[in-house]
Amino acid sequence: xxxxxxxxxxxxxxxxxxxxxxxxxxxxxxxxxxxxxxxxxxxxxxxxxxxxxxxxxxxxxxxxxxxxxxxxxxxxxxxxxxxxxxxxxxxxxxxxxxxxxxxxxxxxxxxxxxxxxxxxxxxxxxxxxxxxxxxx
Length: 136
Ligand SMILES: *[C@@H]1O[C@H](CO)[C@@H](O)[C@H](O)[C@H]1NC(C)=O
Ligand SMILES: *[C@@H]1O[C@H](CO)[C@@H](O)[C@H](O)[C@H]1NC(C)=O
Hints:
The protein is mainly beta. It has one helix at residues 2-20; strands at residues 27-34, 39-47, 53-57, 64-69, 77-84, 87-95, 104-114, 119-129. Helix content is 14%, strand content 49%. The protein has a single domain, classed as Immunoglobulin-like (Sandwich). The longest helix has 19 residues, at 2-20. It has a four-stranded mixed sheet, with no helix packed on it. The chain is globular and about 50 Å long. It has one helix and eight strands, in the order H-E-E-E-E-E-E-E-E. Bound molecules: 2-acetamido-2-deoxy-beta-D-glucopyranose (2 copies). One 2-acetamido-2-deoxy-beta-D-glucopyranose (NAG) binds next to strand 8.
């Protein structure tokens, strides 16, 4: 009897755990501007609940607005890498887990030159909104 009860509890627990492994999708938006000539490519890396990087997409347009929708169910966040002629700049990882449902992640990527035009600098600003990013 005890065993049967525990088995029932175990099955309930397993189904709760299984549900918690599904995460909401989010729109991740980009606005690359400024000295974009320095950029070779921009990639987004998607993370699963183990905080492992599972996949990436490197076709984010260099210059101007664009967006991606996170992979269904398993992704809990992302990291950006901006590959420039002077090295790779990383932003994140940023995680939503189960939170910010319907939130849009707005990534404003502003490139500059500094040190007399010798170094590439990035001003990065992440905001989470529920309607649209300020450039949309
Ligand atoms: C995975 O995502 C798809 C599309 O959003 C949805 O239809 C499906 O029910 C999800 N599966 C699970 C196990 O949550
Ligand atoms: C980031 O962007 C938001 C939305 O435009 C703005 O309100 C905020 O001041 C910005 N933060 C910085 C540090 O630039």
